[in-house]
User: Which sequence fits this backbone?
C-alpha cells in the first residue's frame, strides 16, 4: 500500500519548496515556490505528532546543518537525512538522530562515474540498513538517467532494473525524485512509477509532480502499491492548494470510509 512520507527541504537554513530543475551553482538563484516562516523543527514536531515516519530532510547546499540537526532532534529516529552526506560524516548524522542517511553525489566522481568502492566502505561503516541511495533522475534518450550534484550533472548510471538489482544489496531503500517534474505540480511521471513498481524489490519513495489526491491514487495503481510518495509544493503545509496535509495523514491511516477528494 502506497504511503505518504513527509519531507523537509532546506535551502540557506530555511524550509523551502524549490523547482527541482532550477538549482544551479552559478547564475540566478533557484525558483522558489514557497519559503516557510516556520523552522525545520516545527515541521518535524508536526510529523512526529501525526505519526508520519520514514520522511526525509534534504539539505540543498551549504548553511543548513543547524536547521537539520534541530529537525532530527525534534523527531529522533523518525527522519532520514540527505545532502552532503559522506563517509566522514555519515555516522555523525545518525548520532544526531537520523534513522538513515541518504547518499548520491558521494558515490560518483566529478564526471559522474560510479564509485562502487566508496559505497562498499560506507556500508561497512554504518550498515546497509541505515543507508538510502538516492537515484533521482532525469528523462533521457535511454529512459531515465541518475543525476547528482543537486540534479545538475547526469551520471553514467541509467535507472534500469539491472542497476537497481546491483545497488539493492547495499541499502535499505531507494529515494527517487523525477527531477524534470519536481516542484511543478503538473502531475507525476507515471511511466517511471510503473517501472519502479514492476521492479519493487526493496522500499522506494517517489517524489515529483504529485498535485492532487488523484495523483496519489495513480501512484498506488501504477506502482502496484509498492511505491511510497512524498509531496512538496502542492501541499497546503507548504503553501500549496492541491493537497491537504490532513488528507494525507488520513490517507496513511486509510480508514474504510476514506474518499478520494
Assistant:
Amino acid at each position: 500500500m502506497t504511503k505518504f512520507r513527509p519531507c523537509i527541504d532546506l535551502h540557506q537554513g530555511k524550509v523551502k519548496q524549490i523547482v527541482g530543475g532550477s538549482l544551479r551553482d552559478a547564475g540566478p538563484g533557484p525558483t522558489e515556490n514557497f519559503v516557510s516562516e516556520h523552522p525545520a523543527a516545527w515541521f518535524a514536531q508536526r510529523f512526529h505528532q501525526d505519526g508520519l515516519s520514514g520522511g526525509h530532510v534534504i539539505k540543498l547546499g551549504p548553511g543548513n546543518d543547524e536547521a537539520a540537526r534541530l529537525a532530527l532532534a525534534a523527531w529522533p529516529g523518525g527522519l532520514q537525512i540527505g545532502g552532503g552526506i559522506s563517509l566522514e560524516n555519515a555516522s555523525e548524522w545518525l548520532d544526531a538522530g537520523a534513522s538513515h542517511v541518504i547518499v548520491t553525489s558521494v558515490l560518483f566522481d566529478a564526471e559522474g562515474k560510479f564509485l562502487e568502492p566508496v559505497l562498499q566502505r560506507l556500508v561497512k561503516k554504518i550498515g546497509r540498513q541505515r543507508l538510502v541511495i538516492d537515484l533521482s533522475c532525469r528523462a533521457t534518450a535511454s529512459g531515465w538517467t541518475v543525476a547528482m550534484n543537486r540534479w545538475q550533472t547526469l551520471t553514467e548510471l541509467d535507472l534500469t532494473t539491472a542497476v537497481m538489482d546491483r545497488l539493492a544489496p547495499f541499502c535499505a531503500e531507494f529515494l527517487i525524485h523525477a527531477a524534470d517534474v519536481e516542484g511543478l505540480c503538473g502531475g507525476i511521471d507515471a511511466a517511471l512509477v510503473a517501472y519502479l513498481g514492476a521492479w519493487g524489490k526493496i522500499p522506494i519513495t517517489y517524489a515529483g509532480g504529485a498535485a492532487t489526491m488523484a495523483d496519489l491514487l495513480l501512484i498506488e495503481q501504477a506502482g502496484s502499491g509498492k511505491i511510497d510518495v512524498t509531496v512538496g509544493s502542492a501541499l497546503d503545509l507548504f503553501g500549496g492548494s492541491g493537497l491537504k496535509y490532513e488528507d494525507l495523514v488520513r490517507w496513511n491511516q486509510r480508514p474504510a470510509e476514506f474518499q478520494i477528494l
About this structure: The helical segments are 40-49, 65-74, 90-95, 116-126, 161-167, 190-199, 213-222, 245-253. The radius of gyration is 17 Å. The CA atoms of residues 90 and 237 lie 29 Å apart.
